[in-house]
Amino acid sequence: MAVESARQRDIAVLESMDEIVGRNWLKGEYITDEKKQPDFYLQVVIAALQKMHSTGTIATPDGSMSPCSIDGVLAGAQNFIQVLASGNGTHKMPGNVSNYLVAVELIKKMNDVSELLYKLDMSDTVKVAKGAADIVKIMGESVDAEIARGNVSTETVDMIKMWRRIDENVPSEMEKQFLRENAPKP
């Protein structure tokens, strides 16, 4: 089932992020080769999460602060990593344990959001199974409805946006298989 495949992908992503965080902050190893997908992309996501945390939009929400743009944060994180990759000695990734612990907490929050998405997407799948609508049209409807009702915090909305960006860049095995099977024949 597509929803279960996506959740399995999320678990694999979270495990990869945890491993990358350990390498980055505990061992001082950074992925500078963009061709190492998805690890390089996930490193950018971790940097983005850390930046969101430092601006108060994750873990320390401030009512006066507007939510940051995921695109903007990812662009900033990408630029930061490119500066590191260029060998400019004036910029260094933090090497202390407190940054590692913050990152691990953010990964835990990303897992909580992934579980929420899984539950809401499963409710959409149940609706489709009962003949309510086409899966493509209805998938994500429950998530959007919860956000519209105000039942989801700004922090969680930001993380949902982050997961949707991950969806675009790190497809699940089921999606990869679908793309292989439906690729144009040479």
What are the key terms here?
8 helices; mainly alpha; 186 residues
Commentary on this structure:
This protein has 186 residues and is an all-alpha fold. It has one domain (2-171). Helices cover 69% and strands 0% of the residues. Helix 1 runs antiparallel to helix 4 and helix 2 (39-54) crosses helix 4. The radius of gyration is 18 Å and the shape is globular. The two termini are 29 Å apart.
Compact overview of the structure:
With 186 residues, the chain is mainly alpha-helical.
What's the N-to-C terminus distance?
29 Å
Helix-strand pattern? HHHHHHHH
Number of distinct beta strands: 0
Summed up, the domain count is 1
Helix content: 55-70%
Give the helices and strands, then pairings.
Elements: H1 2-27, H2 39-54, H3 70-85, H4 97-129, H5 135-138, H6 141-148, H7 154-169, H8 173-181
